Amino acid sequence: MKKCLLLLFSCMAVLAFAQEQPKANEPHWKGKFEQLDQMLPTPNEYRTGSGAPGPKYWQQQADYDITAELNDENQTITGSETITYSNNSPDVLKYLWVQLDQNLFEKNSNTAKTATNSMRDSSAAKMMAMQLNLWDYEGGYKIISVKDAAGKELSHTINKTMMRIDLPTPIKAGGKYVFKIDWSFHVLDRNQTFARSGYEYFPEDGNYVYTIAQWFPRMCVYDDVVGWQNKQFLGRGEFTLPFGNYKVALTVPADHVVAATGMVKNPAQVLTTTQLARFEQAKTSFDKPVIIITQQEATEKEKTKSKEKKTWQMEATNVRDFAFASSRKFIWDAMAVKIGNNTPLAQSFYPKEGNPLWEKESTRAVKNTLEVYSKHTIDYPYPQATSVHAASIGMEYPMICFNFGRPKKDGTYDNDKLKGMLGVVIHEVGHNFFPMIINNDERQTTWMDEGINSFVQLLTELERYPELDFSRGKPAGLVPYMKGDKATMRPLMTNSEQVIMFGPEQYQKAATALFILRETVMGHDLFDRSFKEYAQRWAFKHPKPADFFRTMEDASAVDLDWFWKGWFYTTDNVDQTLDQVKWYKLRTDKANVEGKEKNVAKGDLAAGKNAENFDNGPQYIAVLPTNDRMYGEFQNKIDDKAVVSKLENKNIYEVTLSNKGGLVMPVIIEWTYKDGTKETDRIPAEIWRTNENKFTKVFAKEKEVAHVTVDPDKETSDINTQDNVFPRVVQPSKFDELKKKSN
Predict the structure, then answer these.
(1) What strands, in cross-sheet order, belong to the sheet with 257-260?
(2) Exposure pattern of 556-568 as b/e (b: 16+ CB <10 Å)?
(3) Smallest Cα–Cα separation from 240: which of 41, 550, 448, 490?
């Protein structure tokens, strides 16, 4: 019975193959479906071919005991730290590398020297000062001393933003080393530097909000892939850090409130009786935030500046960094969140300038983020997550982040301000998962941090704020970038300092790639299970791109090497073109059914080659009896007539598509029938595996087709959808009529 159908399709396939072949010397195969094996590191006992940590996986640990004081009179920080460094590697270490990120702000830093700029008339004074580094401040660390545990000076060398400490005795595998660093630095005005860390001054009441990060000398990562990750900090590539435990004593003005990584261990000594009672109440308030410090109370403190001091004792376990914020201006609210067996606090700290927006939205956004991210990764393990309001910034650290979104002075705000504020809170709180827990190397592979996080951010926004129409990460939103100048594009697998289009690439393109992978390539179930497996495997570890790629395939049984190669290793774009659609029907008269094969091949199949629409009706084709030689050694025969009868009323459509953008993707074909109904065929990307430029495929349909569209819902970031339709030009009246019928 299948014999004639097979013959028909075989004849068509042979002819289509002949039509598809490129001209002489025209490349059509670039290995887009070859495996990534040669591009990825060889699996070993530390990192396996499945993408999981190996049986001998190891990572270093750095524990910190820090005492520091914030001086509100001259905006300085003075600190002393004791670092206990555990060498869990199989290597002997003769020296240690420490990051000195504040040295970015030295006048002779490499960042200042390598910054490019140009002059133009009528520049704003602020921009001119930034371009020529005209600010009058003293930036960078003053390293007071570097000593061993016994107080003996250690030989050390400062190289810009890195410091090497030479050890009198190497640290053997499994050994520990304790040393101390004393330092100080000037806290800088973020309005001048646009830095991640610094202060904001409020002239109306003469107070400061300090958001302090990269504030203490921090250990570099030493791992099994690159050894010491001691690439200089030039300002963009963020921070690669080992996990450890922190004990931090922060001395601040007595009327300041401190928000920080970890939990306060002496709340009775730093909070009033009323504040302490509210704080305890918040730990069991799951339905709404409890205001611990009210706006009225914060406003009163702005008027009188205490000369007394208080020390906040903070502790954090198994974190990769520590940051804090301090001000007498802070309003503080918090609520509990149920995450599996944990009940972390969602908290917000903000000056009155953030209200009413922040009191209404911030802590609830923290709660929403923890819940949705936990669903897709691991249950949030830390005791709290804090959002701090600061002007014109979005920056993340373990359990704390600094976020923009300030209403007008009269307290009003529009929908764009609301979306911007919610988006940044979700994004920065989400960074608790990527990279604060799933701890990738931000300085080398930014997309593993920003891109993956932006993707889960979008999932959170779509689930919890569907009415606000968040779009960053959706395929259609990436089209303007993908249509842009390739001279300014870089593959996602590019070091952050070499990226030009930083936001569109490392954030948006990576997020869109994962969104398409979930929605169009893999489907929710396979993607979500694999993504969660990756998060669980690499929580509190240091994953690399290969670990992510391999895990996603290992947990799904989906070969995605073509996807990683296209989206992450190239600057290709998606531009699928629907070249032509030919309409055929079966000729049913006996003479043609029993006609000669050569007439079919040379006659009717070639007819209508340049048809622009369906107005001339179908081309009629004959199906021939199956020749005995096609059976080979098989003894049984196919019922040719039964096949013919099945095809008698079918509409057969031969579709030819081209891949002009170079990025192979699944093909989504929507058929709109003459009766107004629709049907969609989804074809895997492997359709391009033998010819990456063009393919032809035949479909048999019960109904007559009026209109064919490729990627009708804009799922693939196709940069030109005008050539995705057939017929190319549809009369408005006719198209409107079809649309009306389908609705």
Answers:
(1) 198-202, 207-212, 324-327, 257-260
(2) bebebbbbbbbbb
(3) 448
Type of residue numbered 167: L
The neighbour count for residue 284, using CB atoms within 10 Å, is 10
Cα 36 to Cα 566: distance, rounded to the nearest angstrom:
11
Q: Which of 649, 638, 681 is nearest to 6 (CA)?
A: 638
- What are the Cα distances from residue 259, in Å, to 129, 268, 383, 397, 639? 32, 15, 13, 12, 80
Phi/psi at 239 (nearest 5 deg)? -110, 125
Cβ atoms of 331 and 389 closer than 8 Å: no
Is 676 found in the same domain as 641?
Answer: yes
CB 583 within 8 A of CB 575: no
Q: Read out DSSP for 66-117?
A: EEEEEETTTTEEEEEEEEEEE--SSS-EEEEEEE-GGGGGSTT-HHHHH---
* 510 domain residue, yes or no: no
The SS3 of residue 553 is helix
| Residue 292: predicted pLDDT | 98
pLDDT given at position 60: 98
Extended strands (E) in 589-739: 619-621, 651-659, 667-673, 678-683, 694-701, 705-710, 725-726
Asked whether the beta carbons of 101 and 135 are under 8 A apart, the reply is: no
* pLDDT of the residue at 635: 92
Helices (H), 570-663: 590-593, 597-602, 640-647
CA distance 536 to 528: 12
728 inside domain? yes
Distance between CA atoms of 506 and 251, rounded to whole angstroms? Answer: 38
Predicted confidence at residue 130, as pLDDT, reads 77
Asked if residues 667 and 576 have their Cβ atoms less than 8 Å apart, the reply is yes
Query: In the structure encoding, which two tokens stand for residue 691, read together?
Result: 């010819």
User: 722 and 580, same structural domain?
Assistant: yes
Q: Which range marks the domain in which residue 655 is found?
A: 3-32+575-742
pLDDT in tens, 278-315: 999 999 999 999 999 999 999 999 998 999 999 999 99
Domain count, the chain: 3
194 vs 404: CA distance, rounded Å: 13
Cα 197 to Cα 451: distance, rounded to the nearest angstrom: 23
* Residue 611 located in a structural domain: yes
* Sign of CA pseudo-dihedral 347, 352, 356, 358: negative
Q: Are residues 194 and 154 in the same domain?
A: no
Residue 373 to residues 298, 321, 399, 538, 602, Cα–Cα distance (Å): 32, 20, 14, 15, 60
- Decide the pairing of beta strands 218-219 and 176-186: unpaired
Give the pLDDT mean for 378-399.
Answer: 98
For residue 634, count CB atoms less than 10 angstroms from its CB and return exposed for 0-12, middle for 13-18, buried for 19 or more.
exposed
Two tokens, residue 256: 């300041």
